[in-house]
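Q: Here's a chain of 195 amino acids. Please give me its 3D structure as tokens.
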Amino acid sequence: MEITTLIIGLILLLGIHSVSIVSVSWRDTVVARIGQAPWQAVYSVVAIAGLTLVVWGYGMARQSPTILYIPPSWLRDVAVLLMVPVFPLVFAAYLPGRVKAVMKHPMLVATKLWAAAHLLANGSLADVLLFGSLLAWAVADRVSVKSRSPRDLPAAPPSRWNDPLAVFVGLSLYAGFLLGVHQWLIGVPAGSPWG
């Protein structure tokens, strides 16, 4: 039941986030027909429903995990290191500067690093489904983005302070996760088995 819930959530969450990967023209046709605001409302409802089912299904699956592999303990240290740039990259996506210019799509890079780090450190069926799906989606989206017209996304105005701000806030948030936020949110300390 819990794996089914996780899978349905992933289908909804990644499905709605894959509309432009599959067919930009279909998305644009629907937006032209119903309007931008209704499209965003439908998009948001489906994404929130998917995310809710993912969190619920993953949380239930962690109660009695089906173990596919047990990573060696040193891979948890590798995962902790891979996570260092993740939060700064997330903030760089919304704080345009040199980081965003060089990375092009820092949010997708962050998603790939986050998913890969968690796959290295965790080996349950739920982990492989969740993090493997997100990694595959981020790779597919990155490939697709190369052939799509760029869309304006909400972001702060360009500034020479954006990069230092993204790095400072991102590393501060990561430190918070290492010092207890991860345990508070997920139930296990960052870097521990099945975390």
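Q: Can you summarize the key feature?
A: Residues 66-195 form one domain.
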